[in-house]
Design a protein that fits this description.
Blueprint: H1 4-7, H2 9-12, H3 16-40, E1 47-50, E2 63-66, E3 75-76, E4 90-96, H4 104-117, E5 118-129, H5 131-139, H6 144-152, H7 161-164, H8 172-182, E6 185-190, E7 202-208
Parallel strand pairs: 1-2, 1-4, 2-3, 4-5
Antiparallel strand pairs: 5-7, 6-7
Bound molecules: S-adenosylmethionine.
S-adenosylmethionine (SAM) binds at residues 51-53, 55, 66-68, 78-80, 96-98, 101, 160, 163-164, 196.
């Protein structure tokens, strides 16, 4: 839905720094309000976008969790630690372009936390760079800039440099095995239709907590 500011943007564009500030402030208020409402309900039935950061998946429908309090972020916490959420309450989790930023033991912790907080029947979708596809791209002579970005991550700004590095990636078969080992069922690779990242180099795996 268009806000007042969006509708009158042409007139006020000379003051666009104010526009940016006002829009961020307004987004932050909405996100905090949404987070408070869900917290009061113990997050029962909530959907999480884990590490949505500045590029959230369906904001408004999913609560955006991130370590950096960008205006778009609903819940701020470090996912390398125990999530501040009760077990068995979350309806759905999506995690895009996230797991590759963590070391292997953190990945295992995060996936186990996903399992813990999901309600029975809850759905997990994980999208992360496909190390095998990137290697194939490299051998096939794909653009070196692009291949490097997928392997090592992008540098976007001072604030997120460290968080933007890639540290560990699973081939899709290893991700599926790990999710099954943790206890997920119906684990399979599905079409990457998130629209967030190049599906040639990022897979999407779907799993269910029994
Ligand atoms: C590459 S962005 C992904 C954003 C979005 N999900 C997407 O698909 O484009 C990775 C996000 O992970 C967040 N992040 C990194 N380390 C984190 C941590 N320990 N806990 C929570 N979020 C973290 C970063 O701040 C950043 O917003």
């Amino acid at each position: 839905m268009k806000t007042f500011i969006d509708r009158h943007y042409r007139t006020i564009r000379r003051f666009r720094f104010l526009y940016g500030w006002a829009k961020d402030a307004c987004t932050k208020v909405q996100c905090s309000k949404r987070a408070e409402e869900w917290k009061a309900k113990g997050y029962k039935g909530a959907k999480l976008d884990v590490c949505g950061g500045r590029n959230p998946y369906k904001p408004g429908e999913y609560l955006n969790v991130d370590i950096v309090s960008f205006p778009q972020v609903d819940l701020v916490f470090d996912i390398r630690r125990k999530f501040p959420i009760e077990s068995g309450v979350i309806a759905e989790i999506i995690s895009c372009a996230t797991l590759e930023h963590f070391r292997r033991h953190h990945n295992e912790h995060i996936l186990r936390e996903f399992f813990r907080v999901l309600a029975p029947g809850g759905i997990l979708r994980v999208s992360t760079p496909d190390i095998e596809a990137i290697a194939r791209g490299l051998l096939a002579g794909d653009d070196l800039e692009k291949v490097n970005q997928h392997f090592f991550g992008k540098y976007k700004c001072e604030k997120t440099d460290d968080f933007d590095l890639h540290r560990w990636m699973y081939p899709v078969s290893a991700m599926i095995s790990l999710l099954r080992e943790i206890g997920f069922t119906d684990v399979k690779q599905v079409e990457n239709d998130t629209g967030l990242h190049d599906p040639k180099y990022n897979y999407l795996v779907r799993a269910r907590k029994p």
